[in-house]
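Example 3.
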Amino acid sequence: MGSHGIRDRVAIVGMGCTPFGEHWTRSADDLLIDAVGEAVTSAGITLDDIDAYWFGTQASGVSGLTLSRALHLPNKPVTRVENMCATGSEALRNACYAVASGAYDVAMAVGVEKLKDSGMSGLSGTAIPGAGDDSRGEITAPANFSLLAPAYAAKYGLAEEEMKDVITRIAWKNHVNGARNPRAQFRKEVPLERIRSAPIVAGMLGVFDCSGVSDGSAAAIVVRAEDAYKYTDRPIFVKALSFAAGPADGLLDPEYDFTTFPEVVASAQEAYRQAGITDPRAELALAEVHDCFTPTELVLMEDLGFAERGQGWKDVTSGAFDLDGSLPVNPDGGLKAFGHPIGASGLRMMFEAWLQLRGEAPAERTVKSVAEGRSLALTHNLGGGPGECVSFVSVVGSQLTE
Amino acid sequence: MAGLIAYGAYVPYHRLARTDVAAALGGRGGKGTRAVAGYDEDTTSMAVEAARGALAHDGLRARVSQLFLATAAPAYLDKTNATAVHAALGLDRHVLAADMAGSVRSGLGALVTAARSPVPTLTILSDLRTGLPGGADEVAGGDGAAAFVFGGHRNGAPVIAEVLAHDTVSDELLDRWRLPGAPVSRVWEERFAEEIYVSLADKALTAALDHAALDVGSIDHFVVAGLHTRACATVRRTAGVRPEAVTPDLTGAIGNAGTAQPGLLLADVLDRARPGETIALVVLGDGAGVLLLRATDALPAHRAARPVAAQIAAGSAPMPYATYLSWRGLLDREPPRRPDPEPPYAPPAHRRTGWKYGFVASRCEKCATRHLPPDRVCTSCRSIDAMTDEPMAHVRGTVATFTVDRLAATPSPPMLVVVVDYDGGGRFRCQLTDATEADAAIGARVEMTFRRTVTASGVHNYFWKARPVRTGETEGTH
């Protein structure tokens, strides 16, 4: 019994990612076809070479048929997975295990979400008959995550205005990064004052504190590490994959104080153990984290071990996580600016790690840390909310560990 | 000796100023305010709140053997509304719960039926008076509820007011009426029924006094209730009681709550009557009824925890008239660009009735951890099926964190959401109601209140919300 990890046993050798945004003229099928096509092209293979698929979507389709129908795949195994906003990462995790097990030579992880056909603002929950006993109560996603802000401010002695400055700085940073990303939903820098004075959505959160609601798809091709150089001279090796579904006790237990995600702490520690990382802030070249709302990114800096408890806000303010900071976080703009098509987001994060570690990111958003010799990237993907969530952490690297 | 053993009143938090109605619609000013049920209240939820006040003392719930809910504004037809009250109060399965619904006079009917019942009876009067914009019911009406428990004397739950006598006269009379589904009552010319009511009141009062062998001059508190304002005023003036015995009708502050008005006025008198004093309640409407009570020595120690006067004093500043109109469905505001709210589903609601209606959580027998909602598996020690029921409706708490949700679909945006940490353990995230954004703050003290959270697809959803602790009674009254 135990979790062993699959460090350096599988590699990503091809990826695709559509632009994210309000794709009024493109269906989920269109997005899937484009992301999958780009992935197989980048690996120099065809769909016939893929042995099995793990397909993630939160609510844009059910079953493997959603993918196999769109691509008319000839009787290939397609597994549809769903794990809230961590769906895309969950597809990748299972594809990696399938290859590591020896069951398949080439697997694809693909995620998609088509959110902008609903006509609603924000996310619309999937109705499960049974909500009728009022066990959880109605709350929108921004309101749910906004619960973090007053709790964090109260615990660490920040005035409301100071807290607003901190989260504003996070949104500003991610918009700066997104402005340097042609695939991002929002490609303009936004002045701090405009972010700060934007209409309020929930609690302290203005519209610029919320991730973009968008459509998009991303895909990755996974092979055994020893086969990786057959496909590319710059494969990305999987160092760690960890996943934690919380006990959902944060809304039951007064001990939980809304300034952390215990699930993230657990999944990060497990990922660092698998990857052999002892000082993530110094060892990682970049991190792609689940900045669904700006207070989430703040708390994640502490949960992922990038900042000391209660100090994350200072590091945010000093620019430590900026593109030119000591640990760039969300250099592609994150959920905030790249957009958040739920089932695709985890693979989109991996797409940025893929670009940066291979030196393929556009020059204006290339992180310096890779050239300085760091070769590891982290992706973190979260579903749920404060008190009850699922959390995924991966570490990937451009070098095999000695 | 049987009599009244407990009572409780519920005056909703919100107020509408009559001058604001006049300012919006034109016309003459008007004075004072009326009580307004929240957007998340109806006659059923207000009945629960009043009954919770009446049943606050230990052991009373177990004694109740029947429950009547009287209202002219039932939340449902066909389906019984009293069963929701029964569930919210956690009364025994064998308690008869039935509505006396439709007419304003059902309030008198429920009171008299309870007063002369051979078994302990909880009777609740609840009403929500709306009418149409600019109409008399809008400015003269009021919303509220009152609950009374009649039964025999017991140590710990003594009779607080003896029933000396009662009398009712019935008269088929086209004074006030409303067809099912109509938004507003119609009334005949006021002077037509005035003389009739004065005469009927005299008949009932005389009969009751004769039965009790009392003189009209011995009445210490003379309460006259009814929607025929002019007749009520004349009865107060001409019945022959001592002028200082005539009690105020409270309409200046909370309006006339129709079916519930006799209950609210009686509760207000019970809040201050002294032992030995005689109370006469006269109710006009399709006849007349009289209930003669005498306060016992036990009354001062067993008054309701929340006096009517304190609830009036704790009311909100006048609300915008437009808000009132939108709450009552008279101003159709554009909904947010969000999915329609979900209605409750019958099977999960039914299998968790104790939680949904009664706010009964569970407590681990092994480690005492409270679980809201009730769980089978302990989140702390992981024991399975080692839970006992843990009623939480009466437990107060403190806000751990909060938010103001401006995106959520609610009849009264924005939605206030609080995470409540309960005294003695346990946590739940829920809405904060009867509150402004300033009331949502870390550390704020809250209590639970039974509400109609939403009506979706023609189904009412009843559940509990937190509200700020406002009325003055000391912590831990329950």
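Chain A has one domain: 1-117+144-396. Chain A touches chain B through 44 residues (CB under 8 Å).
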